[in-house]
Amino acid sequence: MKLSARINAFSRLGNELGKMSLPERMGLAETVRNENPWFVEDSVLLAIKGVVELLDEGRLNSWAQSYYPEPILPRTIGVAMAGNIPMVGFHDLLCVLMSGHRLKAKLSSQDSVLVKSLVSRLVEIEPRFQDQVSFAENLKEVDAIIATGSDNTSRYFEYYFRKIPHLIRKNRSSCAVILGEESKEEFGLLGQDVFSYFGLGCRNVSKLYVPGEFDFEPLLAAWEPYQQLINNNKYANNYDYQKAIMHLNKEQFHDGGFVILKENHQFVSPVSTVYFEKYHDQQEVHEKLQQVESKLQVIVSARGWFTGSLPFGKAQFPDVGDYADQVDTMKFLLAIK
After folding, report:
1. Does the pLDDT value for residue 69 go beyond 70?
2. CA nearest to 333, candidates 144, 204, 88
3. Are residues 252 and 218 part of one domain?
4. pLDDT in tens, 73-116
């Protein structure tokens, strides 16, 4: 299958997803939630929106054609997909198929419905993909591997697949740099980066860098629209637990009624909690971020003023050429001999 046919198929998939009726989306979201209670309707709809933007025909063309992905001998690429947010493994699926290889995917038990639904739609659009996609419980008999997991599982992956080309991703998280002059609307956009998917994704902001005398009240006021998160039992249980632990330990924190802001030098915070760290000047922030570079996925700031950052509200909408862990997946795939 030529590159142009692959681009056309994925572009049509994006168009079809964008045109799904509301009842159809709601029905799919309900099925997905039965598999994973964290994947509520808003999360599923946001994930679909992200895929639609990813599959824009113009973006796909400029991205894919820059690689000339026509391998001489297509290989079978194993992909171990995570299940922390809906369709988190879709970009790897896209890269494998767009590079002309075959995909053998081990789906997370927490996110199988959505991925299989999209693959089914893709095969309907382009039947030749039928023989290029398979699902398996183990990833034996593959020529290369892409796997995403915790820092512990990544060590297992690296050992087990040490004899074949492998791209192993570890835990990462994202942060925001706050200047202290942001508007309510800008803080509201930051709320999207923090609370989308209940904060479970690697592109979710779990750490804030704030000026020394920062006033948290305007920030928490701007986040009030996300109060409804507490209606989710799993989220509420995390919030109650974290708050109880902090009270027992007599720790200081800012309580938003559904989110806890706590000063902490660690980079990754628990669900319902956002850590913050104070800074004196921008140079200090740059130095702090250099220290956690291996844990950093995305930096956001208001209108993207901080060097190397995305604007508030854009963390969950990566471009097709924005690669996890800043490792070019397409280059990895096209280098496989």
Report:
1. no
2. 144
3. yes
4. 899 999 999 999 999 999 999 999 999 999 999 999 999 999 99
Q: Is residue 335 part of a domain?
A: no
State whether 46 and 149 are in the same domain.
yes
Share of the chain above pLDDT 90, in %: 83
Please tell me whether residues 155 and 89 are part of one structural domain.
yes
CB under 8 Å to 127, separation ≥6 — which residues?
Answer: none
Same domain as 150, residue 92: yes
Are 224 and 305 found together in one domain? yes
Task: Give the pairing of strands 254-255 and 260-263.
Answer: antiparallel
Q: Answer yes or no: are the C-beta atoms of 223 and 208 closer than 8 Å.
A: no
User: Could you tell me if residue 327 is inside a domain?
Assistant: no
pLDDT digits (tens, 9 = 90+) for 170-200: 889 999 999 999 999 999 999 999 999 999 9
Residues 79 and 213 in one domain: no
Domain that holds residue 288: 173-311
